[in-house]
Amino acid sequence: MLTTISEQVKNTNSQQTWLTKFKTTLASSLLLLTTSQTIYADESLGHFSQTYTPQQILADINQWENFLHSTHPNLAHSVENIDDFYTQLDSLRGSIKTPMTGQALWRELAKLNATMADGHLSFDDGKNAQWRAWIKDGVQLFPLEVVVNNQGLFVKSTLGGDANTYQGKQISQINGIPASTVTEELLQRIEGDNLAFRQALLSRRFAMTYRLVYGAKENFNLKFKDSETTVTLNALNQQPESIQSKPFEHYFNLQMLDNKQAILTVKTFGWDEPKKYFDFMAEAFQKLNANQVEHLLIDISENTGGDDEYWMAGILRYIAQKPYKQGSDYSAKILAKYRDPGEVVGTVVTGSLSRMIKPETDKSKLFKGQVNVLTGPLTYSSAVLFANTIQDHKFATLIGAPTGGRSTQSGGIQFLTLRNTQIRAVVPRFILARPSGNQQMTPVQPDIELTINPFNRAQTLADALSHSSKL
């Protein structure tokens, strides 16, 4: 998963050299797999299927704790009770008495994810590329895509995205275990700032997380709400929709409507070919102006982040008509690889962004119609900073559901692959408040609230356009 923030945070004279270094990418980075002193299980999930000694595991936990404390500027930013956190960590250490598989260890380490309560602070469950490789080698998974929300666990489609007979039905049991118990067990191991974000992430990663927590199953006996019938489904050797490789057009597209309205979908603020993205955005806004579009809906409801430059130069360049900044107060841990002259590694610096970013001087490029931005529980990281900036500078009206991330965001994420078990950890190195200076620890609240329909994307967009037209 992933996300990046490039910004500048420093004192008055050198304030603009920092956030360009602060990468908050939740997207995967390369993991190195080791075979030393390990035993492979019959069905290999790579490092998760290998067995490790207590000494190896404890060394990895110590490595992670040292990395955590040398990287994070303030754990209290997201950890509600810091004493309980350390008690939980000590209890975990004390429980390591016998060899464990990486899968069993992850089940214990990942319990810290909910405690740490930050989508940028976690033990992750494997890269998308790793899962694609494991599935290619024969790994089978829970056969359905699902929706997890406050009402329960619902069928969305067949694993991979194809239509399913049971779409929309609420699952009440899986293999004799109440669905509420299953989702509670899985949610405990999902990272995130709040429950809505963790539910949205689990919806995407259910099959993989279920496999890590409950192990391999050949089939699944399901019961649905208001039905006594048991349905048996076989496990599937199929990639979940969320890890499938998708083309540029899936993440970025412009839909022109026949009533001088348009929808600009932006599912991430990053791409392997930056020029392709920025060219697309330039052409999109040129097309909007040429067609005299009066209302633009920018959909970031499934945007989990990326690099701020993608929305500053790719979107605000065309809609911002006054100077702006993307944050205010910050705190950051000095790391050796980012240290500037005079800075002491390991110290925490604080300050406030002051430089205002100037708007586009070529007025012909500016979009002059009404702009609304659709947010949702998957709006996270740099997408939250975009929502902050849009709202505080009144560049557009936010519509939808509260963001998945708190308004005051952590960032500058650093990755650590544990030396022995190869489990990957993520830790942020800075914290940034919204441009207004409000130290808001809750999600960004839309100006107009709208329910996101997880089963019908088209209906959500139609509702957003309908609400927007009344403004």
Task: Based on the model shown, name its key terms.
single chain, 471 residues, alpha+beta, Pdz3 Domain, 2-enoyl-CoA Hydratase, Chain A, domain 1, 3 domains, 6-stranded antiparallel sheet, 6-stranded mixed sheet, 30% helix, disordered N terminus
How do the helices and strands line up, and which of them pair or pack?
Blueprint: E1 51-52, H1 54-71, H2 82-95, E2 100-101, H3 102-109, H4 111-116, E3 122-123, H5 128-136, E4 144-149, E5 152-158, E6 170-174, E7 177-178, H6 179-187, H7 195-214, E8 219-224, E9 230-234, H8 248-251, E10 252-256, E11 261-266, H9 274-290, E12 295-299, H10 308-319, E13 329-333, E14 348-352, E15 370-375, H11 382-392, E16 397-400, E17 409-411, E18 414-417, E19 424-427, E20 430-432, E21 448-449, H12 457-469
Parallel strand pairs: 11-12, 12-15, 15-16, 16-21
Antiparallel strand pairs: 1-2, 3-19, 4-5, 5-6, 6-7, 6-8, 8-9, 10-11, 13-14, 13-20, 17-20, 18-19
Helix pairs in contact: 6-7, 9-10
